[in-house]
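Translate sequence into structure tokens.
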Amino acid sequence: MDFSKPLVMGILNATPDSFYAASRTQTEHDIRARADEMVAEGAAIIDVGAFSTRPGASDVPAEEEMERLRMALSVVRRGHPDMVVSVDTFRPDVARMAVEEYGVAIVNDVSEGGLTGAVRWTPGGDVPEMFAMVARLHVPYVLMSQRPSIGTMLPAFAEEVAMLRSLGVADIILDPGFGFGKDLSGNYAVLAGLDRLSVLGLPLLVGVSRKSMITRLLGCDTAEALNATTALHAVALMKGASILRVHDVREAVEVCRVVERLN
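Result follows.
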């Protein structure tokens, strides 16, 4: 993919409990309509997830996550066979299913490789099982940090990227993980220092869409958070973001076009 211009990743939640209610798609009709809308509005990637990571969300067994994903991915693939699709999962076996059965192009992992706790032995030592799986699948990997600050994130990213490279993972996208392991002030401090991550020379994905860093600051609910989301998207792009992961594709595409004109 060409990151000389910022890209928009549209969120498709095949879940009943994602934090933004309007993003939930559980029927084939809703999934098809959501995918059609995102493609029409200019999304470059559709990110399909079937396990809500919002605080307090119920646990979903791997089998149920796979069942939801199979339904959603089959609908997306039928309607848009050439679309770049990513899978939002922290489970290596779920990632394998999505890539091998549905040709998913990117694994988007919120766990920094570690939520399953599983490791795999390699000649170079033990590595997170998700790292080994992505290397086996030969697909790009979104490495998301749960660290609280840029200062703690940078050395961890450098170590993890080196580990992934040693396994043969060629394409890595960094996600600073807004809303994960960070308090309200920490989220904004990370956004303010986002450009410091450019030292690693990798594309940056930013996911702030309608998150609690907005609703808690402004005292609004997720349905009222689009305006502030757009403002944060503009800041993120000016700080070096390559991909915006969003609920509202048209508005994100528009802000990309506007900020691009400043360069």
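Note: The chain has a mean pLDDT of 91.
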